[in-house]
Amino acid sequence: MTDRSQSVLSKSAFLKIVPDNYITTPQTNSLPTFIDIQNLELSISDQIIFEPLTLPIYKNHVNALIGPSGCGKSSLLNVITRLTDYTDNIKIEGQIHIDKKNILNSDIDLIKLRRKVGMIFQKPVPFPLSIRKNFELPLKEHGITDKHELEEKMENALHDVGLWQEVSSRLNESATQLSGGQQQRLCIARILALEPKALLMDEPCSALDPMATRIIEALIQQLKEKYTILLVTHNLSQAKRTADYVAFMWYNNNHGKLIEHNHSDIIFNTPANPITAAYVKGLTD
Amino acid sequence: MILLPSNHNLADRILRFICWICGSLVLSFFAFLFFDILIQGYEKLSIAYIFSNSLNAGRAGGIAPMLVSTFLLLLLSLVIALPISIGSAIYLAEYTNEKQWFSRFIRLSLSMLASVPSIVMGMFGYAFFVIALNLGFSILSGALTLAAMILPLLIRNIEDTLRNIPDIHRLNASALGLSKFRTIFQILLPMANQGIFLALILGIGRAMAETAALLYTSGYVTRMPDTIFDSGRSLSVHIFDLSMNVPGGEQSAYGSALVLVLFLLSINILTHWIGQKIQLRSIT
């Protein structure tokens, strides 16, 4: 999909026509936001990854982030979970407010933050331990040591992702023996057991087959009742199927820039920006 | 890992043949060595030889004291070296990168330690443990010297194993809010346990084969050690002494060599077996 859209739109051809402040914010400002990103700018080793962007992530909605590879979508997720702390020579400016606190402050408790904002990676990687241990380790870290409580939380989380029936008889077997789709659902369940408020998903289906992808997509729809979801995807039809709000990022002078943010229907049918229009047209052509 | 198809053309066949020769050479070195020792030494081998004291400078009698000394040296040096190795390997792999001066310094020290000839290490052990720390010619001095010798081997192997664990596991652990402590002890170390056992086997082999470093540190009296503060003669030192300094000791030297080789083989097999058990247990 990305290759195709890049051939439709050559990067340089569009540089000229990207106006400076062409970001459309949705008109539904009354919606409560869970993550409030304000003027966030990221650079690594003096190379700007994305230009200052302001993006509200709406509570209990699926917020999708689309755009070509390398425009900083995944980096944005890493900033929100502070996984960028492990990269050298990184510079972050701006603010990210979650529950009225700027999580970029140095005094923020990372363990609490990551319990609140769960991250699902592209490639599902359970720890090469038993399914049970995959739940026990994080739960124990967050102070849950009672055996019954551990069991209950694990079972509930596995029910939530529809995996309980498939794995209930082999909880003591290695999690790496599960199929790719099951592993991804296990990773989601592992996060859900921690009772987060938001789920950040970095292309959660790109390593999965179409069947498993459908299951995860259905799960995302179901999860938004309880959680705020920020989904990075390369798959435009997936964004169309699952997202309520879509933010579109593009390149500008070799770094990422938020071009347009609006309700999914508007982004896919009547986008304001010609680049957005051309990019999502890759879907309909 | 897959095996690519071969035998398609001449170059393939030649390469395959050369590699086969190399592999066979390795096998035949070992076979030659093993059968030489077996043929020359098997007559000596008996229950009595293993369980009795040495007589007439080793020409007659058995090797019980040497076996006990060897075992004590080995056990003690591993008990000393393994925790230090795991600790420094964790430090190098999980707390530093190659650019930091302190980690560079540790790495440099390791390369130096690894390349110090064992006789020099023996002299160091003599000057430091035997004389300066006043431990005398003792199994403890020998074990400390051996520990210093096998440290680089253990640390390198354990560090490599840790570094080979993909970063995605660390990211996952971080994203789940796991502390570094839990990540290291409950995820990374269990994943590395096979590498740690491999390092252990290599360390055991190195320590059991060591002769020169022990001559000056644990000494070479042939009597049974009572404590680790007694002097004791390791099996390899015994072989060295019988073949170099004791006329008529060759047969006994072969007998001891056979015991040493069998001992090494069984430790290899045992360690491998334990390694697999532990791997299985850490999964559940």
In short:
Chain A is of the alpha/beta class. Chain A has twelve helices and ten strands.
List the helices and strands and how they pair.
The complex is a heterodimer of chains A (285) and B (284).
Chain A: H1 2-8, H2 11-15, E1 33-44, E2 47-58, E3 62-66, H3 73-80, E4 90-98, E5 101-102, H4 110-116, E6 117-120, H5 131-141, H6 147-160, H7 164-167, H8 180-192, E7 198-202, H9 210-223, E8 228-232, H10 236-242, E9 245-252, E10 255-263, H11 264-269, H12 274-284
Parallel strand pairs in A: 3-8, 3-9, 6-7, 7-8
Antiparallel strand pairs in A: 1-2, 1-4, 4-5, 9-10
Helix pairs in contact in A: 1-12, 6-8, 8-9
Chain B: H1 10-41, H2 47-51, E1 54-55, E2 60-61, H3 64-95, H4 101-115, H5 118-132, H6 139-163, H7 167-175, H8 180-209, H9 212-215, H10 235-245, H11 250-283
Antiparallel strand pairs in B: 1-2
- Largest pleated sheet of chain A: 6 strands, mixed
The domain tally of chain B reads 1
Q: What's the main sheet of chain B like? A: 2 strands, antiparallel
The low-confidence runs of chain B, each spanning 5 or more residues with pLDDT under 50, are none
If you consult CATH, what is the topology of chain A? Rossmann fold
The CATH class of chain A, by name, is Alpha Beta
Beta-strand percent range of chain B: under 5%
Search tags:
heterodimer; A: 285 residues; alpha/beta; Rossmann fold; 4-stranded antiparallel β-sheet; 25% strand; globular; disordered N terminus; B: 284 residues; mainly alpha; MetI-like fold; two-stranded antiparallel ribbon; 2 strands
